Amino acid sequence: MRKKANTKKRINYKKFYKDKSFYKKQLNRLIAVIIILIILMLMKKINTKFTNDVIRIVNENINYEFSFKEDGKKMLEKSKVALKLPEKIISVFKFNDDKGGVVPPVEGKVYKPFGELKNSKGKYNQGIDIIPENGNNISSIGDGVVKSIEEKNSQGYYVMIKYDDYEAIYGHLNEVDISVGDTVSKGEKIGSLGDFSGGNRYLHFEIWKDGSPINPIDVVRLN
Asked: What distances in angstroms separate CA 100 from CA 4, 134, 160, 185, 187, one per listed residue?
């Protein structure tokens, strides 16, 4: 009788350690998922082509890195949904090319960033200045209505287009192909650039939300 009791005790003891090892392994996997989520959220805020590519690769392969049981799979799916939350927070306009989001006004590199400029004695840039890489045609970033067109002498034309929740200003245009009141579509040409600022051709681009300028880089992805 004592022998059977000891045997039963040993079995329970092994089961306890087996269960403990199982839960410990699951906990380690859970911690790994949380760490990945935190890293991805931070990378979302950086919002560069490199970080976006990393996020895409991780998102495509995350199902193959972990083999949870049914409860673990459900948790993983909820975690994948959570990956999209920072994008909704950062981009007020829900930037997403696959769902009718915005497109760049021109392909190029940022010449002057948004905000206070270095060595400019407090000068503040309300948008960004983009030097185009190919061509000088400027396109509408989305579907909107032309609200105003203003000629600023040597600075060229400034065009304001009203979108659903914000306005965009396209500056330093040499030619304008639209008129006030026109409805424009995403990717439609609205004008072209000339040569300004000592011969340097660039687009001055602003985005305004609720009466205040915001960083266009948070809305439009430049390749």
From this structure: 70, 24, 20, 11, 11
- Within the chain, residue ranges assigned H as helices are 2-46, 49-65, 70-82, 85-90
C-alpha distances in Å from residue 93, one per residue of 4, 44, 134, 182:
69, 15, 27, 22
Other CB atoms within a 10 A radius of the CB of residue 40 amount to: 19
Give the start-to-end residue ranges of the domains of the chain. 2-90, 97-218
How far is Cα 166 from Cα 140, in angstroms, rounded to an integer? 13
pLDDT along the chain (223 residues), means of 10: 54 55 76 80 62 56 46 51 43 39 90 77 84 90 96 90 95 94 96 67 92 91 72
Q: Which CATH superfamily is domain 97-218 in?
A: Glucose Permease (Domain IIA) (2.70.70.10)
- C-alpha 128/C-alpha 63 separation (Å) is 39
What is the pTM (predicted TM-score) of this model? 0.54
Q: Is 41 exposed, middle or buried (0-12, 13-18, 19+ CB in 10 A)?
A: middle
Strand (E) or helix (H) holding 208:
strand 203-209
| Residue 13 one-letter amino acid | Y
Distance from C-alpha of 149 to C-alpha of 159, rounded to nearest angstrom: 5
